[in-house]
Amino acid sequence: MALKIRLARAGSKKRPYYHVVVADVRSPRDGRFIEQLGAWNPMLPRDGERVKLNEERVKHWLSNGALPTDRVARFLADAGLTTREARSNPTKGTPGKKAQERLAAARQAEEEAAAKAAEAAAAEAPAAEEAAS
Hints:
Helix content is about 40%, strand content about 25%. The protein is α+β, with helices and mostly antiparallel strands. It folds into two domains: about 5-80, CATH 3.30.1320.10; about 95-133. The chain has a five-stranded mixed β-sheet. The longest helix has about 35 residues, at about 95-130. The chain is rod-shaped, with a radius of gyration of 30 Å.
């Protein structure tokens, strides 16, 4: 039986509250679970008591092979119960395809405007020299 330490949603509409539970991977998110290990209230400020964990039971389930989900692994790493490997997504910050097209069009328009300004300045320079002579 594969076990996960994951979140089960509670709370009312637009007021989320989550229980940290150990559950079989086949059971539904808010359905049957084996044991409740803590809670997470995302509505509280970050410096408050947002996450509460029963550390002894978490250690027990981790030693018995339960795997935490990404969000729960973040909580456990903050509590010092596990280490979480750093994730690397170098393409996350790059703009999408449409935004890249808009940037390329803006650059091209900028270059064309600079070229026209240079041509206009070059055309005015000989006329100014002729007028000065």
